[in-house]
Every structure is written in structure tokens, then in C-alpha cells.
Amino acid sequence: MSTRAHPPLEQGSTIEVLLFAVLRERAGWERRRVPLSPGICAAQLWQALGLGAGDLPSTVRVAVNQAFADPLQPLAAGDELAFLPPISGG
Amino acid sequence: MNLRIDLHCHAFEPHTCLQQWQGSLPDQPAAESMFLGRMRAAATDGTPLQALELEHYPGMTERQLHHLASDCCARHGVGSCLIQHRVGRVLPGEAIVLVAIGADRRGPAQRCCQELLEALKHDAPFWKREWRTDGTSAWLSGNTPL
């Protein structure tokens, strides 16, 4: 029986999740690398990470690799996923 | 298309930026339209404000501003565009955003300026947090009415 510890997750099998503003403060973290389950999308990851009580709220937008994206789009290894609370620029 | 976009971590002098941008253009446009937004001294409910915290998504902000400006300017057929935007801690009266458009005619210049301003207010990843004079704060959940 091997006593070797699990190897660290390689970047290829994970994605980076970023939170901003009120979402970051509510969750208590800003950036986290998480394992990528095949076919998972941002909306599912929102629930898996316990970021809210229910479904991804319509007011929260999603960006993948720094561009707005469909929350139901399957994520790929190495993606940078960001959950964006309501924007207030200008 | 002549496009200049800058994010400022510290207070900037909008009229100096505007003058420098105008001086950098190869040809002086016949029409220019600009909008300058400054921090209010009070929240929409009248509560006095001490400061505004402007958070953004480094990398995406620059890309999105470039995308919004290029798209808007192409649709209106204008020749030059300037966007200056603050990030970080902003004090009452300080400039938050400057948008300027140079074009051949006033119509495209004014329409593009207004449209681009609304686009960046809603589709560029910035977030405002109001700090009140009593030390409490709140993230804004949207923009002030047009």
C-alpha cells in the first residue's frame, strides 16, 4: 500500500476562480484554484462552492478568461472564471 | 481610429488630460464632445460621504474598455476617443471619469460620447463602495439614474 500523499493538482486539471467587491467580502476569499469536474459550468460551480443560498442570481455576471460569458458554458482546464456583482462604473 | 485609455490610481486633472490628448491628435477634429463625472459629496439619499472606493478587475477592465470604445466609435464613425477612469479611493469633487470624442460632426460626437459613457457604466467591471462620514460603508448595487 502506498503511503505517498496525493500530488498537488496540476494547473491543467483546475480552474482559477475570482470574486470581486461584495461577493469577495461575503465569501471571505478573493482567489481560489479548484479542481475541474468534466462538463461543469459557472452556474454549477456557484452552488458547489457555496457562494449563495440558491441558484446563481441573475444580477451576478460571469466572465471566463476576462470576457463576459454564458454561465451555462462548460468550463475548460486552465480557465480563469470570475463572478461579477452588479457593475457600477463611470 | 485614435484611441487612448488610461486608469488612474491617484487623482487626475481632467482638463490637463483633455488638453494633452487634443495636442496628440494628428488632425484637429471639427467637433468634440466630452463628459466629465466627479464624485458626489452625498449619497442619493442625502447621506454625507467621505470617500468612494472604486474596485475593478485588472486586465478585464482594460480589455473591456477597449472593446466598448472600438465598437462604439466604429458604429458612429468617429475618429478619436479618450477615456480616463479612476480606481482606488476617490474623494468628493475628484474626477472619476472623462470621456471625449472627436468627430467630423456634432451628431456622431455627442451620440458616441453618451453611448460610450453608458456602456462603460454598465459593462466595464468597476464596483463602487460609498464610505460615509460615520465610518460605515456600502457597495452600490447599480448606477445613478440617467
Sheet-strand content of chain B, in percent, reads 35-45%
Shape of chain A: globular
Q: What CATH first level of chain B would be assigned?
A: Alpha Beta
Unreliable spans of chain A are 1-7
The ordered string of helix (H) and strand (E) elements of chain A is EHEHEEE
Alpha-beta content class of chain A: alpha+beta
At CATH level 3, the topology of chain B is: Aldehyde Oxidoreductase, domain 3
Rg for CA atoms of chain B? 16 Å
Annotation field: number of helices of chain A: 2
Largest interface, Cβ cutoff 8 Å:
A-B, 18 and 27 residues
User: Between the first and last Cα atoms of chain B, what is the distance in angstroms?
Assistant: 28 Å
Describe the protein:
The complex is a heterodimer of chains A (90) and B (146). Chain A is α+β, with helices and mostly antiparallel strands and 90 residues long. Chain A has a single domain, classed as Ubiquitin-like (UB roll). Chain A is built from two helices and five strands, in the order βαβαβββ. Chain A is globular and about 35 Å long. Chain A starts with 13 loop residues before the first strand and ends in a 6-residue tail after the last strand. The model of chain A is unreliable at 1-7 (pLDDT under 50). Chain B has 146 residues and is α+β, with helices and mostly antiparallel strands. Chain B has one domain (2-134): Aldehyde Oxidoreductase, domain 3 (Alpha-Beta Complex). Chain B is 32% helix and 36% strand. Chain B is built from three helices and eight strands, in the order βαββαβββαββ. Chain B has helices spanning 14-24, 60-76, 106-123; strands at 2-8, 31-38, 49-56, 80-86, 88-90, 95-103, 126-132, 137-139. Chain B has a four-stranded mixed beta sheet, sandwiched between helices. In chain B, strands 5-3-7-8 form a four-stranded antiparallel beta sheet, with no helix packed on it. In chain B, strand 7 (126-132) and strand 8 (137-139) form a beta hairpin. Chain B is elongated and about 50 Å long. Chain B starts with a strand and ends in a 7-residue tail after the last strand. The interface between A and B is medium-sized, with 18 and 27 residues.
